[in-house]
Amino acid sequence: MDLSPPPLSPESPLDHTSMLLVGHPNVGKSVLFHRLTGTYVNVSNYPGTTVEVSRATARFDRAISLLDTPGVLSLPGRSDDERATMRALLNEELRLAVQVGDAKNLRRTLTLTAMLAELGVPMVLALNMSDEAAAHGVAVDHKALGEVLRIPVVPTIATGGSGMQPLIDALAVARAPAPLLHYDDATEAILRSTTAFVEEHAPHPRLASRGLAILFLGGDSEVEDWLQARCGVHYPELLALRSEADGAGSEPLAARLAAERGRAADALSKTVMDQHARARRPMAQRLGQLAVHRLWGWPILLAVLFVVYELVGVFGAETLVGLFEEKLFGEILNPAVTDFFTGAFGQGWFTDLFVGQYGLWTMGMTYALALILPIVTTFFLAFGVLEDSGYFSRLSVIANRMFALLGLNGRAVLPMVLGLGCVTMATLTTRILHTRRERLITTFLMALAIPCSAQLGVVLGLLGGMTFGGTVIWAVTILFVLLFTGWLAGKLVKGRRIPLVTELPPMRLPVLGNVMKKTGGRLKWYLIEVIPLFLLGTFIMFMLDRLGVLPWIIRAGEPLVTGWLGLPPEASAAFVMGFLRRDFGATGLFALSGQLSAEQAVVGMVTLTLFVPCIASMMMIIKEQGARTAALMLAMIIPTAFLVGGILHQLLRIFW
Amino acid sequence: MTIETSGAAIARPLPAAPHFLFRWATLLMPHTARGPAGGHQPTPTMSNREHLRLIGVPVGSRIRLAEFDAAIDPLQREQLLAYGLSIGHPLEVLQQHPLTVVLCDHVEIALEHVVAGDLWVEKLPSRGRT
Ligand SMILES: Nc1nc2c(ncn2[C@@H]2O[C@H](COP(=O)(O)OP(=O)(O)O)[C@@H](O)[C@H]2O)c(=O)[nH]1
Asked: Which residues, 6 or more positions from A546, have their beta carbon under 8 angstroms from its beta carbon?
């Protein structure tokens, strides 16, 4: 999607300039965003990044496009989210910014304000969550703060809608805040020469050179890239300036710059903020602490998982899927579409392409809309509720120890849990992980050993009905493979493990409207990003089948399947089906269940679970990690699946 | 998708084995006024109270961040600063297991033990009830 603003038309000189919402994570930016915009919200990757941003037309001024940037912890940016925000500041046709800050944490809010002030961004400061601040005994003199900063400062409660009109009114008088940062003489000197250099070789049309210089000296990679592109041959001189300054002080330059931001924010917040003593800890805080308690955390986790399972696994995957897949698609839509195609085009490859065994409609769309859509819808709902409630970051704290074994940190629990819903979706969400290494390991483990809900349903339903002991063996084997390969991957993949440091936002009652809007945005994104992959995957299978490659693979696989795994030859076809739809593979295997012993069923299911992820998630892996990495993963996953299956077969023959 | 976006990409070097073991062995030992790396002068604003590693401080204590260990990764330090953990700032220890959790300006921040082990703090007198 092209997000660059359209050319200015003469009648409205400010046609589609943008207004940015910036702020720390969890300060209420998205709630505020939804308050300030209409219903039509566009969720997409910010150009050139893998970070999701929301964009919409402002409700109060149709000519303004509002952009909700991802949360920034600090600038200069270090994470993908921060880089995306910096990119937006650099590239948007920026008219003004609204910094959304947490009123109960003014010091941190002002650290960011100090940086925005140096960039000369015209802005308004919304001190959000003023209700929570009051509950914590924090009183901010927003008038005094506004006078010092020389910008409008508006207290708001985004969830309750209070302060919205004053905020909108204040936008008209937005301006660049008065600078807050005063460095020591040596740092000021280097800053002056860097600023002069930027001014001469790479002035920015909207941002102040001094701010860019601070960010560059602090090592912001987006600003580095931007300056490098503009400075051309002069860029090495700029680099030389920085390394000279870096060597000069006792501390690294970036640390000195950061310390001054902290000092300035600390000093200012002390003068305008009053902290009343508070008799007791708010209820939410105590609840939040229970959720990460070394003992109580576990029963709470089980209860949460149970509710999520009831919603997604039972209501979504059984009730809704039953309604959609069997009734709506199976009995009404698919027969009608098939009739239409055979009526209009007769029998033949063209009809087959749409409604045949590997038909774009009967297979691809049915899968995406009737099976996966209900599951991801319920999943996103549950996800949104947990996200808004503040539980997720607590979950990552609880899971941290286990993920440390895998060379990851607790943050990876989110994609993994999502993987139990749909691995294709979950592969997309590995973007929330901060390093490439974490994304790679998590994606690999999900492709190998996380069964998606469609497959899980069939495995538990059918294997569970056949042999309880076998189900346990299946679960233990898969868990073992997950932990073992994870441990191995943690050792083998280059790079270091990153310890978990995370903010635990207060536990809150989720706001229904906010959850619905987020779910809606994500569903739209699912439909746009994932459905094409399902269709492409189906098309590839159709072609392979037409060209006779599928039957050939099935025949070629037979010796391996019969000799090494001890399964009937027909099981070979089930594995190939499993590539198309994970649950189809499992169902295919069970179509043979009359011929299978309990041991064969377990071996077949274990191998199938580990065997290649479905073709849609394969396409997603290619999209996220590149074709080479995806091929490498496949080359590891297929032998691992057969190896584990074969060993299990030998073991079970002896011991079971 | 913006699921949980707090936190920056911080790569922290794993210390070489002997140093690493040494650091763990000294984790609970109190130090006075200077970190184990030596040579670091205490900041003038600091009192002469004992410096403890955050990881060894009992739950419920009110503390003040005294200094970062010399071994801490610069990016890690920057991230902690961004969370508001600056030198001299008062904190309250809420939890030590499974992770260290401190309250900093009404915001709870969870730190893995390896990180908490790199923070030197000093205890403040406990706040009287109001
Ligand atoms: N009490 C209170 N909660 C709020 C307020 N604004 C947002 N929230 C809640 O804070 C959480 C984070 O909000 P969100 O908009 O997702 O934060 P973002 O990460 O900045 O986009 C959600 O649970 C919101 O319901 C507010 O003004 N008061």
From this structure: A349
Tokens of A402: 């286990």
Closest to A115 in 3D by CA, of A7, A257, A235 = A257
Tell me the pLDDT tens digit for each residue of A70-88: 889 888 988 888 999 999 9
> How far is residue B83's CA from residue A634's CA, in Å, rounded to a whole number?
40
- Please tell me the residue having the least CA distance from ligand 1 atom 2: A129
pLDDT band at A8 (very low <50, low <70, confident <90, very high): very low
> Which residue of B9, B81, B106 is in closest CB contact with A262?
B81
List residues bridging with A100 in a β-sheet: A23, A126
For the entire predicted model, the pTM comes to: 0.79
Task: Find out whether the beta carbon of A159 lies less than 6 Å from any atom of ligand 1.
Answer: yes
Q: Rounded to the nearest 5°, which phi and psi values hold at B50?
A: -65, 140
Nearest residue (CA) to ligand 1, atom 22: A388
The domain ranges of chain A are: 14-173, 185-253, 282-656
Tokens of A222: 């987006």
ipTM of the complex: 0.79
User: Could you tell me whether strands A17-23 and A42-45 are parallel, antiparallel, or unpaired per DSSP bridges?
Assistant: unpaired
Name which of B116, B112, B22, B14 is nearest B63 in CA terms. Answer: B116
A443-498 confidence digits (pLDDT tens) = 999 999 998 877 887 787 778 777 888 889 999 999 999 999 999 998 898 888 88
Q: Is the peptide bond before A76 cis (omega within 30 degrees of 0)?
A: yes
Tokens standing for residue A289: 């602490």
Q: Name the CATH superfamily, with its identifier, for domain B47-130.
A: Ferrous iron transport protein A (FeoA) (2.30.30.90)
Give the residue among A180, A190, A169 at the shortest CA–CA distance from A254.
A190
